[in-house]
Specification:
This protein is of the alpha+beta class. It has one domain (12-163): Peptide deformylase (Peptide Deformylase, Alpha-Beta Complex). Helix content is 29%, strand content 29%. The protein starts with 25 loop residues before the first helix and ends with a helix.
Protein backbone atom coordinates (compact mmCIF):
# COMPACT_ATOMS: atom_id res chain seq x y z
CA UNK A 1 0.00 0.00 0.00
CA UNK A 2 1.08 3.54 -0.66
CA UNK A 3 -0.19 7.03 -0.08
CA UNK A 4 -1.28 8.76 -3.24
CA UNK A 5 -1.44 12.48 -3.88
CA UNK A 6 -4.96 13.92 -3.76
CA UNK A 7 -5.49 16.21 -6.74
CA UNK A 8 -6.92 19.67 -6.27
CA UNK A 9 -10.01 21.02 -7.98
CA UNK A 10 -8.32 22.50 -11.03
CA UNK A 11 -6.82 19.20 -12.23
CA UNK A 12 -8.31 18.07 -15.57
CA UNK A 13 -8.77 14.43 -14.40
CA UNK A 14 -11.33 15.66 -11.85
CA UNK A 15 -13.35 17.49 -14.48
CA UNK A 16 -14.16 14.65 -16.88
CA UNK A 17 -16.11 11.40 -16.51
CA UNK A 18 -14.12 8.38 -15.33
CA UNK A 19 -13.87 5.19 -17.36
CA UNK A 20 -15.65 1.97 -16.47
CA UNK A 21 -13.53 -0.79 -14.95
CA UNK A 22 -13.58 -3.69 -17.40
CA UNK A 23 -11.42 -6.15 -15.48
CA UNK A 24 -10.61 -6.33 -11.79
CA UNK A 25 -6.90 -7.11 -11.72
CA UNK A 26 -3.93 -6.58 -9.39
CA UNK A 27 -3.72 -2.94 -10.43
CA UNK A 28 -7.34 -2.29 -9.39
CA UNK A 29 -6.83 -4.13 -6.08
CA UNK A 30 -3.65 -2.14 -5.39
CA UNK A 31 -5.52 1.07 -6.24
CA UNK A 32 -8.29 0.16 -3.75
CA UNK A 33 -5.70 -0.48 -1.03
CA UNK A 34 -3.85 2.77 -1.81
CA UNK A 35 -7.12 4.75 -1.83
CA UNK A 36 -8.00 3.29 1.56
CA UNK A 37 -4.68 4.33 3.05
CA UNK A 38 -4.83 7.76 1.40
CA UNK A 39 -8.38 8.46 2.62
CA UNK A 40 -7.56 7.44 6.19
CA UNK A 41 -4.37 9.52 6.19
CA UNK A 42 -6.38 12.56 5.03
CA UNK A 43 -9.15 11.92 7.62
CA UNK A 44 -11.68 11.67 4.81
CA UNK A 45 -14.98 9.80 4.61
CA UNK A 46 -14.89 9.12 0.87
CA UNK A 47 -12.54 9.10 -2.07
CA UNK A 48 -12.94 8.59 -5.81
CA UNK A 49 -10.17 7.12 -7.96
CA UNK A 50 -9.97 10.24 -10.11
CA UNK A 51 -9.14 12.24 -6.98
CA UNK A 52 -5.84 10.35 -6.91
CA UNK A 53 -5.28 10.74 -10.65
CA UNK A 54 -6.79 7.46 -11.91
CA UNK A 55 -9.73 7.94 -14.27
CA UNK A 56 -11.57 4.75 -13.26
CA UNK A 57 -15.08 4.31 -11.83
CA UNK A 58 -13.99 3.34 -8.32
CA UNK A 59 -14.97 4.88 -4.99
CA UNK A 60 -14.47 4.08 -1.34
CA UNK A 61 -16.64 5.40 1.48
CA UNK A 62 -16.75 5.30 5.25
CA UNK A 63 -19.43 6.77 7.47
CA UNK A 64 -17.21 6.88 10.53
CA UNK A 65 -17.25 3.15 11.14
CA UNK A 66 -14.11 1.02 10.92
CA UNK A 67 -15.38 -0.66 7.74
CA UNK A 68 -14.62 0.97 4.41
CA UNK A 69 -16.99 0.19 1.54
CA UNK A 70 -15.26 -0.35 -1.80
CA UNK A 71 -17.40 0.08 -4.92
CA UNK A 72 -16.37 -0.53 -8.52
CA UNK A 73 -18.53 0.89 -11.34
CA UNK A 74 -21.14 2.18 -8.87
CA UNK A 75 -24.38 3.74 -9.99
CA UNK A 76 -27.43 5.02 -8.21
CA UNK A 77 -30.34 2.70 -8.98
CA UNK A 78 -32.91 4.58 -6.89
CA UNK A 79 -33.25 7.76 -4.86
CA UNK A 80 -35.82 8.98 -2.38
CA UNK A 81 -36.44 12.30 -0.67
CA UNK A 82 -34.27 15.37 -0.59
CA UNK A 83 -32.23 17.18 2.02
CA UNK A 84 -29.73 20.01 2.08
CA UNK A 85 -26.46 19.61 3.96
CA UNK A 86 -22.99 21.08 4.15
CA UNK A 87 -20.23 19.29 2.28
CA UNK A 88 -16.49 19.61 1.91
CA UNK A 89 -14.03 17.70 -0.25
CA UNK A 90 -10.48 16.41 0.05
CA UNK A 91 -9.79 17.97 -3.38
CA UNK A 92 -11.06 21.37 -2.23
CA UNK A 93 -9.52 21.86 1.22
CA UNK A 94 -11.12 24.61 3.30
CA UNK A 95 -14.14 24.98 1.01
CA UNK A 96 -17.66 24.10 2.11
CA UNK A 97 -21.05 24.44 0.52
CA UNK A 98 -24.70 23.58 1.02
CA UNK A 99 -25.72 20.85 -1.44
CA UNK A 100 -29.12 19.28 -2.05
CA UNK A 101 -28.94 15.48 -2.17
CA UNK A 102 -31.34 12.54 -2.03
CA UNK A 103 -32.09 11.42 1.54
CA UNK A 104 -31.94 7.74 0.64
CA UNK A 105 -30.17 5.91 -2.18
CA UNK A 106 -29.87 2.41 -3.54
CA UNK A 107 -26.53 1.82 -5.20
CA UNK A 108 -25.44 -1.10 -7.34
CA UNK A 109 -21.76 -1.86 -7.94
CA UNK A 110 -19.12 -4.56 -7.95
CA UNK A 111 -16.93 -5.45 -4.98
CA UNK A 112 -13.22 -6.26 -5.19
CA UNK A 113 -14.07 -9.89 -5.99
CA UNK A 114 -16.18 -8.79 -8.99
CA UNK A 115 -19.48 -9.74 -7.34
CA UNK A 116 -22.59 -7.58 -7.57
CA UNK A 117 -23.30 -5.60 -4.41
CA UNK A 118 -26.41 -3.63 -3.55
CA UNK A 119 -26.23 -0.95 -0.92
CA UNK A 120 -29.11 0.96 0.63
CA UNK A 121 -28.06 4.08 2.48
CA UNK A 122 -29.59 7.12 4.08
CA UNK A 123 -28.39 10.23 5.84
CA UNK A 124 -24.65 10.87 5.88
CA UNK A 125 -23.71 7.65 4.07
CA UNK A 126 -26.17 8.44 1.26
CA UNK A 127 -24.65 11.94 0.96
CA UNK A 128 -21.10 10.56 0.83
CA UNK A 129 -22.03 8.02 -1.84
CA UNK A 130 -23.66 10.67 -4.03
CA UNK A 131 -20.72 13.05 -3.56
CA UNK A 132 -18.21 10.38 -4.61
CA UNK A 133 -20.31 9.15 -7.55
CA UNK A 134 -20.49 12.78 -8.73
CA UNK A 135 -16.67 12.77 -8.87
CA UNK A 136 -16.90 9.86 -11.31
CA UNK A 137 -18.98 12.10 -13.60
CA UNK A 138 -16.47 14.96 -13.38
CA UNK A 139 -18.76 16.93 -11.08
CA UNK A 140 -17.51 18.68 -7.94
CA UNK A 141 -19.76 19.63 -5.04
CA UNK A 142 -19.10 23.28 -5.88
CA UNK A 143 -20.90 22.70 -9.19
CA UNK A 144 -24.05 21.77 -7.24
CA UNK A 145 -23.71 24.03 -4.21
CA UNK A 146 -26.73 26.16 -3.43
CA UNK A 147 -24.33 28.47 -1.64
CA UNK A 148 -20.79 28.35 -0.35
CA UNK A 149 -20.34 28.41 3.41
CA UNK A 150 -17.55 30.29 5.16
CA UNK A 151 -15.51 27.99 7.46
CA UNK A 152 -15.98 30.52 10.30
CA UNK A 153 -19.74 30.13 9.89
CA UNK A 154 -19.37 26.37 10.42
CA UNK A 155 -17.30 26.89 13.58
CA UNK A 156 -19.86 29.28 15.07
CA UNK A 157 -22.67 26.77 14.31
CA UNK A 158 -20.68 23.99 16.03
CA UNK A 159 -20.14 26.16 19.11
CA UNK A 160 -23.85 27.02 19.34
CA UNK A 161 -24.74 23.31 18.97
CA UNK A 162 -22.39 22.48 21.87
CA UNK A 163 -24.30 24.89 24.10
CA UNK A 164 -27.71 23.32 23.49
Amino acid sequence: MALRQILNDNHPVLLKPAQEVIKINRGVLRLLDDMNETMRDANGVGLAANQVGVSKRIIIVSSGEETVIELINPYCAQTEGEEVGVEGCLSLPGQYGEVSRAEKVKVKALNREGRDVYLEAEGLLARILQHEMDHLEGTLFTDKALRMVDPEELQSEEKSEEKT
